[in-house]
Design a protein that fits this description.
It is built from 13 helices and 10 strands. By secondary structure, the protein is α/β, with parallel strands linked by helices. The chain is globular and about 60 Å long. It binds pyridoxal-5'-phosphate (PLP). Pyridoxal-5'-phosphate binds next to helix 4 and helix 8.
Length: 336
């Protein structure tokens, strides 16, 4: 499929601009040298600009437009205090004059730092839900907002909201493909793209297949099993492909999923994650967090060391942001 066909299909969706794009595709010469061969490039989506950036900024352009299109004036989501997603949607709601409520299942007395600190500075409503059934608290919150005369958008219950990230990264495939070409990467190069497994990786796998890029997406799990991540990606990508009337579907073999870097559970900090954070910081001076990017980057490092990436291949790490989380993990990171 050509650009001329993909662009208008995404272009017909309502959208509110927030991201500073294109983000840089940065050469990482020291990482390349230390890892012993494959050329390492970093797609700096931590630099999407708005409210400390991250991959969610591309997605929220479509999601917030959906909120507006549905005539909603309040946005409610369920997420923990250190959620990048919650921080960025809080910021977007402030910009757009939409009431924001975070139903927060993490402890009420957690340290106010990182993303939670930014939520507080933004002044959004935080509904403490620790120890309670979050769906019930969400229902109560929605009812209360309705009683106050508002029309709330329950983000975690909206199917389109789930798809927004995949739509955004299907489109971002065009940007990355152009930048790879401009960086001298040709059709003869084997290109591996590593990032956190989720809505974005589903979009890059779908977009890459659609555009015939030949790149191989490696979705690194930060929590679930490989099977659950794979099924989620297929579900998201193929729903988006259907809605945008794209002429391809994603198949299970179209991308790789790695779940061996999780370290036991979501937000665990195994030695591989900590080593990856140290490596990125002390070579090409790139900051990563332990929950998302550090973990996904440990996947790139692990796969290169295991010889699953050739010495002459090209590796792109998509840095999806999460910078504020670093400060919430100061105890783990201060003696790195
Ligand atoms: C820093 C960071 N990277 C990646 C992800 C995964 O996002 P998605 O599933 O939208 O690709 C998240 C989600 O919270 C995140 O905060």
């Amino acid at each position: 499929m050509s650009d001329e066909e993909l662009r208008p299909r995404v272009g017909r969706l309502p959208r509110i601009p927030f991201a500073f794009v294109p983000t840089p595709l940065e050469e990482c010469p020291k990482l390349t040298a230390v890892l012993g061969g494959p050329r390492i490039l970093m797609k700096r989506d931590d630099l999407t600009g708005f409210a400390f950036g991250g991959n969610k900024v591309r997605a929220l352009e479509f999601r917030m437009a959906d909120v507006k299109a549905k005539g909603c004036d309040a946005f409610v989501l369920v997420n923990i205090g250190q959620s990048n997603h919650a921080r960025l949607h809080s910021a977007a709601c402030v910009r757009l004059g939409i009431h924001m409520a975070i139903v927060k299942p993490s402890p009420a007395d957690e340290e106010v730092t990182g993303n939670l600190l930014l939520d507080r500075i933004l002044g959004v409503e935080i509904v403490e839900a620790h120890g309670r059934n979050t769906e019930e608290v969400l229902d109560e919150t929605l009812e209360r907002l309705r009683a106050e005369g508002r029309k709330p958008y329950a983000s975690t219950r909206e199917r389109f909201s789930r798809l927004a990230g995949t739509i955004a990264y299907t489109e971002a495939s065009l940007e990355l493909r152009d930048q790879l070409q401009a960086s001298g990467v040709t059709e003869r190069d084997r290109v591996h793209i590593f990032l956190v497994g989720g809505t974005s990786s589903a979009g890059l796998a779908l977009g890459g297949k659609l555009l015939g890029t030949g790149w191989r997406v490696h979705a690194v799990s930060v929590g679930g099993s490989a099977e659950s991540v794979r099924n989620m990606e297929l579900d998201l990508a193929n729903d988006v492909a259907g809605r945008l009337e794209l002429p391809v579907r994603l198949e299970p073999d179209d991308f790789d999923v790695h779940d061996q870097y999780v370290g036991g559970r979501y937000a665990a900090t195994p030695p591989t994650t900590l080593e990856a954070i140290k490596l990125a910081a002390r070579t090409d001076a790139i900051f990563m967090d332990p929950v998302y990017t550090g973990k996904a980057f440990s996947g790139l490092v692990g796969e290169v060391r295991a010889g699953n990436v050739g010495k002459d291949d090209v590796c792109v790490f998509v840095h999806t942001g999460g910078t504020p989380i670093i400060f919430a993990y100061h105890d783990v990171l201060k003696n790195l």
